[in-house]
């Protein structure tokens, strides 16, 4: 379904991003696997090669100056263009509002909103401008941008004023790009995940960190969340990836500016 299309997937060294990369590779796409953890990204590339697919690593921090331009150039020079952009990279840094620092708030804006904006802008020459030439020649080729938002971005969440604000802003960005670039056969949509079983939602007691920030959810809190979900469980990375795949595939050619909720019925 995605034969010979070129996909950039940020945060694809593990979790949902990895599942998306593998699913798209199985469907014929050429993948740029990008993650701040180069070793994890290399492992995913190896998995894709074992499937008979094509993939290369582009390690780095999506919030760094120049990252967006560099990854677009890598995709174009390696595979000849860019058809799919999945803005997936991210982490959480929770605190109640009255205890939250400016640094905490800005960090979530940087990775969940500013980085996707920069990546989308940097994709313009390879998506928007390429489409203009195709349309002038009477050709129609769809390209896709999928932004990973969250249930927190549509209904808020205790302890996540920073994360919820960034994810809500990402929805606004999604809808604006859909309106601005829809005429160029570029669909921009978002997924809003609920509780998905990744290392960001694993037991906080495990003590893992990202960028020096402790990640995870206290086990008791996670169990409480699960009890409020109609399906009584968190989703798997593969279930989350399926929604992203739909929005990146030809199946969604007339879906634009949409937020697809994937949360087991937690928020409807």
From TrEMBL:
InterPro entries: NAD(P)-bd_dom_sf, Sc_DH/Rdtase_CS, SDR, SDR_fam. It comes from the Bacteria. Belongs to the short-chain dehydrogenases/reductases (SDR) family. This is SDR family oxidoreductase. It comes from Bacillus spongiae. The lineage of its organism: Bacteria, Bacillati, Bacillota, Bacilli, Bacillales.
């Amino acid at each position: 379904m995605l034969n010979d299309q070129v996909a950039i997937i940020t945060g694809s060294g593990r979790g949902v991003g990895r599942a998306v990369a593998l699913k798209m590779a199985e469907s014929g796409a050429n993948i740029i696997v990008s993650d701040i953890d180069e070793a994890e990204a290399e492992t995913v590339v190896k998995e894709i090669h074992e499937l008979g697919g094509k993939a290369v690593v582009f390690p780095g921090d999506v919030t760094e100056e120049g990252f967006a331009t560099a990854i677009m150039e890598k995709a174009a020079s390696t595979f000849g263009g860019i058809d799919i952009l999945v803005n997936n990279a991210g982490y959480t840094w929770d605190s109640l509002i009255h205890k939250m620092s400016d640094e905490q708030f800005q960090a979530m804006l940087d990775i969940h909103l500013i980085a996707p904006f920069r990546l989308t802008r940097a994709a313009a020459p390879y998506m928007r401008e390429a489409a203009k030439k195709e349309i002038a020649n009477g050709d129609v080729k769809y390209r896709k941008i999928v932004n990973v938002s969250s249930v927190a971005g549509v209904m808020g969440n205790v302890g996540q004023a920073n994360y919820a604000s960034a994810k809500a802003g990402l929805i606004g960005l999604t809808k604006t790009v859909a309106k601005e670039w829809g005429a160029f056969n570029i669909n921009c949509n978002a997924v809003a995940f609920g509780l998905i079983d990744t290392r960001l939602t694993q037991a906080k007691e495990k003590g893992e960190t990202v960028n020096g920030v402790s990640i995870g959810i206290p086990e008791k809190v996670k169990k409480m969340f699960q009890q409020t979900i109609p399906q009584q469980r968190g989703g798997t990375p593969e279930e989350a990836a399926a929604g992203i795949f739909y929005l990146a595939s030809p199946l969604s050619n007339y879906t634009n500016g949409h937020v697809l909720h994937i949360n087991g019925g937690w928020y409807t």
